[in-house]
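Why predict the complex rather than its parts? Because the way molecules touch one another can change local conformation, and only a joint prediction can capture that. The input here totals 1003 residues.
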Amino acid sequence: MTGTFRLALLASTVLGGAAAAQDVTLTIESWRNDDLQIWQDTIIPAFEAANPGIKVDFAPSAPAEYNAVLNSKLDAGSAGDLITCRPFEASLELFSKGRIADLSDLAAMANFPDVAKSAWQTDDGAATFCVPMASVIHGFMYNKTAFDELGLTPPKTVDEFYAVLDRIKEDETYIPMAMGAADQWEAATMGYQNIGPTYWKGEEGRKALIDGSQKLTDEPWVEPFRQLAKWRDYLGDGFEAQTYPDSQNLFTLGRAAIYPTGSWEIGVFGPQIAGAFEMGAFPPPVAAEGDTCYISDHTDIAMGMNAGTEHPEEARKFLEWVGSAEFATLYANALPGFFSLNATAVEMQDPLAQEFVSWRETCEPTIRSTYQILSRGTPNLENETWNASANVITGAETPEEAAARLQQGLASWYEPQK
Amino acid sequence: MAQRKPFRWHIAVFLAPAVLVYTAIMIVPLIGTLNLSLFNLTEAGERVFVGLRNFATLFGDPRWSESFWNALANNGWFFLVHMLVQNPVGVMLAALLSSPRLRMAAFYRTAIFIPTILSFVIVGFVWKLILSPIWGIAPGMLDAVGLKALFAPWLGREEYALTTLALISVWQFVGIPMMLIYAALLSIPDEVIEAAEMDGVTGWSQFRKIKLPLILPSIGIISILTFVGNFNAFDLIYVSQGALAGPNFSTDILGTFLYRTFFGFQLQLGDPHMGATIATAMFGIILVGVCVYLFAIQTRLRRYQF
Amino acid sequence: MSTARHSTTRSLAAHGVLILYTVIALFPVFVIVVNSFKSRRAIFADPLALPTSETFDMVGYQTVLKQGDFLLYFQNSMIVTVASLFFVLLFGAMAAFALSEYRFRGNLLMGLYLALGIMIPIRLGTVAILQIMVASGLVNTLTALILVYTAQGLPLAVFILSEFMRGVSDDLKNAGRIDGLSEYTIFLRLVLPLVRPAMATVAVFTMIPIWNDLWFPLILAPSEATKTITLGSQVFIGQFVTNWNAVLAALGLAIVPVLVLYLIFSRQLIRGITAGAVK
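Output of the joint prediction:
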């Protein structure tokens, strides 16, 4: 049955092939199924118009399955030509297994600062294997309309932060903060990694953890957990079973006043709120007025090339374009909140996105503490941090217990921490 | 039967298609995977034969063994809830449905089976919505009958989450025992029932004395299917609680533990070797259960041919 | 007279229990369907209310239908499900007949071998299966899915069918043999009709996981032309999805076809069961 079918296909290719003989179709593997429309309507047409003869097909799968699906396809040799790269370990492993190609010699790589490339490089920095696309910045979004109603201003210090929360709680119109513990990653990513850098001083603490001069049981690493434990009083009823979409909806429907989050929500939230209230954002509060603020400006997404692709030339052409200023502008504006890592400054239209990106000027940026090197072993520090952060928020573990457990797990396999 | 017969080709013909497809597409790939449990990577990334050392790690290293026993215990409870709730309810519904001259039997049967045809994605999503403390279908309904105090964010509490999920799974799958028992009950010849009625055996005692012994083989099948299904279960928990089976791993069963290990999750890379080790252990557990059924129970069940 | 009243009470009680359970079974489906027709705010404001003229909104369905060729996806799902089902039932019944009818060396072992498949999730063999499909050029064809689902469904089919076939009267088969019928005729003409209830049951059990499977379509046949409906509606259920209108509409749409399919089989199933009962 298939035999005939393939024969027919072959025949039709041969017969109808003359005109389309040059056409090469590149398939992009991605976990960003939310962006399907943007790729189809904006990004791909722009590339195809400039590069006749190359067709691009964006084929996303759900984020939770992406790694498993991609690895299986790469192992068997049926994966697409272009691979959307997760930062650090996941992509590094693909590269060291020879699944994705070395792109160090790509001309467009010169457009990116070293820090942007660090998430997709070998430890010694000798080879870069994905073209950086975007980073996301953590912070707090708030309901400006609600703040105005209650006469509140965005808090700058930690004390002001709790004062604001207390005030909203007293008023009882709004849930002070939208966060749930059910999906765990909210607590870790939008809680711990959001406010944490302020305490461990961004890159300084992150590097100290890697070289072993600080431990997860040290004060700068336990304090963020203590803060999270305090948040419990300001969350909605039944937050233990509140999921990530629940939190998003609580905020966008105007029922919660503050939402600890990341910049990637900007593009999704705008149309959902549809003008019902005004959104604002503030960076993680600092201990005292005038202290240096730290933000998580996390290198999140890049694109590499399947080492087994049949069209390496066309794929590299596409990647050169992904590394260009043209793509950076297209992408950053189509997806406000995904900030280009391109050295060329990108003009952005969205005011909220501008607000987030302006913190790069005033605050010290860092990446998520658990991503580089430290999540290489078993137990996996990132996953443990999810669990620990959720436990601390629900009260299943004290901050000190959680930190001690993380440290013990890390020390069990990571030499500098032993 | 004692004398040797010529080779019976028809047996081979009957078996061949199933055995071929099944062996090529299922057994060979699975053996390849389970075989990985005997290998692991060296520091340099080469695959070497390590014998049973992975199993020593799984059961000896507290980091692995704690997760394993936790998942196994949770799985045991998950199975117990199914045996105690799903199967009795299924038998009861089938018994009611098979009562003669019941009107609307077709409607009930179809309606009750509907949850079984839904995908896990739908089931997980809708129950999360109903039980959500925020959108308030369950709290609202409890409130309406004055029992608001009984509500808790069940899926978010370590002590309730697993039982809640087990009950959701029961809700979803009760149609299967119901259908199998229903088919078994209907295939009891009318003469048997009529004879019983002549003797004045009706109602509950008729069910217990006449029908129950006749449907015991079906109940046996259901039990073993439940056992196998539960110890392979994965999707419902994955869909509603994620691969980390929260809160705090209280809903982690063998299937989710295996998935997380084998395919990896987030920054945790997939470890096919330890994953295969867990799979082999699971396979062992299920195999023991099935053998107990096949050799100890099935051979002793009395079957009645009509 | 008293027995008549007694049986009325009993049948009332039976109806009571069945109605109660029917409500429990259908309530979540009701929640999905009702909310899929409401505007976003209305979903959250009052999830149990029926859509009114103010809250009625088809935006979810519009979003979903714009996203892909759902008719084609449905057709793919249909082809895969029906073809797999056919092979599972045919091959499964043949093997089950061999196991339950004949005593031969290795019978029990063969039974156990064929049952192994229900003990390990086939998902673990993914990479090897994908390699087979790549090697034979079957990636992105429906044939790949049919092969996998046939293999996946066989163990359970053999397991259930052989149990039921053991219940078929030996006298009947022996009578057939005395009449000079071949083993194949006995299988086709005498045994198969008698196990129709079991066949229908197996059909329904096999159909559901195939229809609802997300994994193998995603791995083996993700192309636009071979997408199944479950895979097609998966686009709306990702980590970052808050578009509940679209999610609910996609879920609602995913329920309808499998429900139709089930209703079709259900008639067969019941016809099979009742035919089997009247011997």
